[in-house]
Amino acid sequence: MKAADMEVEKMQTKLARWSQDQSFEFDDKFNVVYDGAFLFEAWLSVEANLGSETAGVDGLTAEDYRKQGLRENLFGLSDRLESGTYEPDPVRRVYIPKGPDEVRPLGIPTIEDRIVQESLRMVLEPIYETDFSDDSFGFRPNRSCHDAIKFAYMELNPGAGRYKRWILDLDIKGYFDNVDHTELMWILQDRITDPEVLDLIYDTLKAGVKENGQVQVTGKGTPQGGIVSPLLANVYLNELDWWIKQWTEGPRGGPEDWTYVRYADDFMILTNGDKETAEAMKERVEEFLVEELNLRLSQEKSSIRHAQDGLSFLGYDMIADSTTRACKTYVPQEAKEYIRGRISGATDGGTDVSVRRKIRSLNSVVRGWANYYKYCTDAGTVFNDVGHLLWHRMTHWLAEKHKCSRKQLIQQKLDSKSPISINGLTLFDPTGMSTIRTENPRRHGHPYLCEDGDGKPEPQWKKRYREGHPGPDPHLATDEGRPGSGDQSQWARVRDENTCQSTGCDTSGRESTVVHHIRHRRSADDDRIDNLVVLCHRCHRKVHHTDQVVTVQHEGMDEPKELT
């Protein structure tokens, strides 16, 4: 790893510009993958991910990797990549719930393999964003589920003048498990001709899966859980995206006016033709998938239906209403049952959990759920129902916690009855959330070629704490050669929501808080995030200038701790 590392953003812009020339050969870009700045930026994204404390087959978490000596580890990783001695480990197989009676397999790479995959993604994404279709929305910068839903909504809206009567709701059978490695490598070689980059991708695909102590060879598929897997999956289905354009780019309003929208392996084709026209298209798609990509449709999950019969797309129930000449979207029944179950489960049982942790946990769940469904036509009504349930369940839990009646709680304990506020902590109330009218999604230009930088994709670690790079040389930017002591403090601010972890007061602005070391700093190891806590200036002065005890508990602490 060289001392003079390249600037990540400038290099990504160059890659994007070069990719505008379809004849440009990316034949010598492996050095970018193992460049020090790219590996460090990749490390920051891996560390900021919520799964950073989940180990791969080597048993190391992100904290373990840093404790071993981050600088030395990254230099060593760069050297092994450059010399060709790096080999990815098998992923660790785990299973996560998918539904009431289903589980989904997930492959957990080692921390080091995640760093390499993230660096590889950072090199490949600016190139392939040039090639990707506007009709693809999944796992791409500046695009989301909501964009795909809005796009489908406009095509199903009779009042928008773009009404499509028949819908092919299609799902590829076991897509991520059935990507053909040989075909994928041929597709990649149309753009990437650097043999070392291609070898790294191939080795990652073939690394295998370890389950119950046994390593299974992976003959096909992209491991779900791998950082670079979603990008490779999009590269593969980009062939389908562009093949379908021969129909979707026809004249609007004709007898066979087609629209296509894809989010990962879930896609729809809409037409204003008749049912027979839609059935013929389904046959064409099936034939293309089998012959060109060695994939098959899931007959159980694929269907052809009339827009007025409704459909479910990315968690939204959608139906075209010919009476009102509008497309309406609804929160599905299972989504309502899910949030009610989460609220009831969180407020059942014991009261040994702190009020702070309970409120923050519920806020995270309910706010995230409401943000996803805020575009639904019936969002206001559903949010009111959920808000009332949340209020009743939480006031009951708080009354038990404080060993008082609900009336006493409201009169003596709460700062505010609605929304519930206690000791400066406010429970998120979905009834007060503004629902948003569904509009046509914005169409972005190339995310790495924005003239003013607005709209460029933000690394995950920057999304988490909204702060810039630690310095031009990230490995030597801070004293003692310790990368990211400043970054850890910004991450602490995000974890604590810039809220004093003693009083719970919701401070207004960064200048009103301080990031405090719980244990006095004696070495770089004391800069890790679990030793940092956000305090307001008043509490910070108490710790340093008075004999008063300040009690804190951030979400990473099992029990409160006294600061003196």
Automatic annotation (TrEMBL):
CDD domains: HNHc (cd00085), RT_G2_intron (cd01651). Residues 77-318 form the Reverse transcriptase domain. The keyword Aminoacyl-tRNA synthetase does not apply. It comes from the Bacteria. Residues 433-512 are annotated as: Disordered. GO terms for molecular function: endonuclease activity; nucleic acid binding; RNA-directed DNA polymerase activity; zinc ion binding. The keyword Nucleotidyltransferase applies. Residues 453-482 have a biased composition (Basic and acidic residues). Keywords: Nucleotidyltransferase, RNA-directed DNA polymerase, Transferase. Belongs to the bacterial reverse transcriptase family. PANTHER family: NUCLEAR INTRON MATURASE 1, MITOCHONDRIAL-RELATED, PROTEIN YKFC. This is Group II intron reverse transcriptase/maturase. It comes from Salinibacter ruber.
